[in-house]
């Protein structure tokens, strides 16, 4: 109990000081209330699929980790745990280096530009935080975004997965890319051999026809 009271006193000193803005205090309070409100509840009964976009309560975290309420893209579902990439508003004056497969394909940024003209679940351009993959509970879901989904067969989703894989597991990604290249080379060799076989078959048929004549 003493440790809890000390923690509350420390938190109150932080809140009453000048280091936290009114907006953050509002988010801070909502985060604590939601945690307390959901702590004893059963897990949500909902089917969550990879590629879907939800509004999440990420809780209180240290900078540069994402905190409080934000959208998030579900990359994987593992029982009642979700692997999520946070999404937040794009500000061109602050986010001067972002990745986009068409507009900024050479960028190595950890921010992936989601354009509202390409994704109908956002009203204005946003960014996906590639280097802040989260493991979160189903109970952190607040609601699903309208039309909140990136098709998992789309080039955009495949590229996001590839970039995350590259950032978190660079050695494995390099090995994977090398193997993929080798497979493509082998497929090309097989295709060339099949073409040669077909050509030889046609030559044989031609010779057989000439012999009969």
Features of this protein?
4 helices; alpha+beta; 42% helix; 7 strands; seven-stranded antiparallel beta sheet; elongated; 213 residues
Sheet with most strands:
7 strands, antiparallel
Principal-axis shape equals: elongated
Number of separate helices: 4
Give the SSE string.
Answer: HHEEEEEEEHH
Please tally the β strands and state the result.
7
Whole-number radius of gyration? 26 Å
Amount of helix: 40-55%
The chain-level structural class is: alpha+beta
Measured between the Cα atoms of the first and last residue, the distance is 105 Å
Please give a quick description of this structure.
The protein has helices at 2-16, 22-38, 155-168, 170-212, and strands at 52-57, 69-78, 81-89, 111-114, 126-129, 134-137, 141-149. Helices cover 42% and strands 22% of the residues. The N and C termini lie far apart (105 Å).
């Amino acid at each position: 109990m003493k440790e809890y009271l000390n923690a509350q006193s420390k938190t109150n000193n932080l809140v009453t000081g000048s280091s936290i803005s009114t907006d953050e205090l509002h988010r801070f309070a909502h985060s604590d209330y939601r945690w307390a409100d959901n702590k004893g509840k059963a897990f949500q009964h909902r089917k969550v699929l990879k590629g879907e976009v939800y509004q999440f309560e990420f809780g209180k975290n240290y900078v540069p980790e994402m905190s409080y309420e934000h959208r998030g893209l579900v990359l994987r579902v593992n029982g009642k745990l979700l692997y999520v990439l946070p999404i937040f508003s794009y500000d061109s004056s602050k986010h001067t280096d972002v990745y986009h497969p068409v507009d900024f394909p050479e960028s190595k940024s950890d921010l992936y530009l989601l354009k509202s003209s390409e994704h109908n679940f956002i009203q204005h351009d946003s960014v996906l935080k590639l280097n802040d993959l989260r493991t979160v509970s189903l109970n952190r879901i607040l609601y699903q975004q309208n039309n909140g989904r990136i098709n998992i067969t789309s080039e955009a989703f495949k590229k996001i997965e590839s970039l995350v894989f590259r950032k978190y597991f660079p050695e494995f990604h390099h090995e994977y890319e090398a193997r993929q290249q080798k497979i493509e080379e082998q497929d090309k060799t097989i295709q060339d051999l099949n073409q040669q076989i077909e050509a030889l078959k046609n030559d044989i048929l031609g010779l057989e026809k000439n012999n009969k004549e």
